[in-house]
Design goal:
Helix content: 25-40%
Number of strands: 21
Shape: globular
Number of helices: 10
Length: 430
Amino acid sequence: MTRDRQDPMLADPDVVVIGGGVVGLCCAHQLRQRGATVTVLERGALGGPQSCSYGNTGFVGTHGAAPLAEPGMRALAVPGATEPDSPWYIEPRADAELTRWLEHFRRACSVEAAAAGFRTLIGMKRRSLQILLELCATESIAATLESPGIVLAFKTAAGFDDARRGVERTVAAGVPLRVLGPGELGELEPKTVFDIHGALYNPEGAYLHVPDFIVEFGRVLSDSGVDIREHTEVAGFEVRERNIVRLNTTRGELRPGNVVIAAGAWSAACAHMAGVDLLLQSIKGHSVTVAMPPSAPCRPVLLSEGKLAMVPLGDRLRIGGQLEMTGMSTEVSERRIRALLRTVREFLPALEETPTLHTWSGLRPCTPDSLPLIGAAGDLGNLLIAAGHGHIGMGLAPASGELIAQLLAGEQPQTDPIPLRPNRFGGAVT
């Protein structure tokens, strides 16, 4: 992974990581730990609003490992099948890549594929939590991680019954999920009035304060010798003999030994400049941050049917989620914000209305089978991909970064790379 120190190109890094979000920083961290010289390129400010690591709910831990592609989603994988403010919405539009993605998505909506995806994702989430707990022992980062457990609330009997049926399988996979009995939810959240049919609880639920975590992590990496270049965009690649020999940016050129594309929703466009096809679609999410209501929950709560979550951030409450396939626009939809707040009122009817402090939307890069793309890309010998983590990127990033570093260092991978190989979708569906 590291090059000869007599190399005349010594000023250039062993590895360039394109993307300064949580995945890119985790890659840089693991690479630097193995002695590589690393440069991270971020198109905006580290932890800035252009990043999906800026305004999300920051969930990590062992919850949320179920793939988005599961049997119940097959009928909804059609543009216009739901209303524009529904928790899941695909905008009708003429887009060949979207059509191709949806064909693969419907193929992945099987019991067998969902079970296999769950096994891979839960393994990555467990490993990620281990790495994150070690990382957050660092004094400057420690305050950005909280692990009070998470409540999964279900509004409907059908939703709750379906969730209960999956508890045994989830526990067998090593996740300490349990059904809350009568009165237990009130003991966990005595200030909050819920109007729900039932709830589950995972004591391993944890979350990161973002963007604080990203900013502090960046400082730690800079102190360790990682060169982080903000406001730097990739303009193109020079390829020679199946290797990237030069990387052109808006702030100069680099001649890296290896390149890792971890650019979130922009990964497909970035890879395309190198002649590599990635099957990714952006799924937009929104968040609204309000002043903390007096009767708000003191721990994270997932409002399951609404596909949104609530996390306490000191004197603020962040509400985020929903899944919207509408292209690459990050414009905040007031209609979506109203839908988020309406869903909260349906689940928590007594929650006080408090001033809105901030609204935001971001793009989650998603694969059809919900598993990220990690590993070598195409025919280029020194290009790797770490992208497509969807709406659970915070909880998968540490294991992804470790896998990238292990692959480059020739180590035995902690995570099986086969289900994550970037070329697994091939060409168009036959």
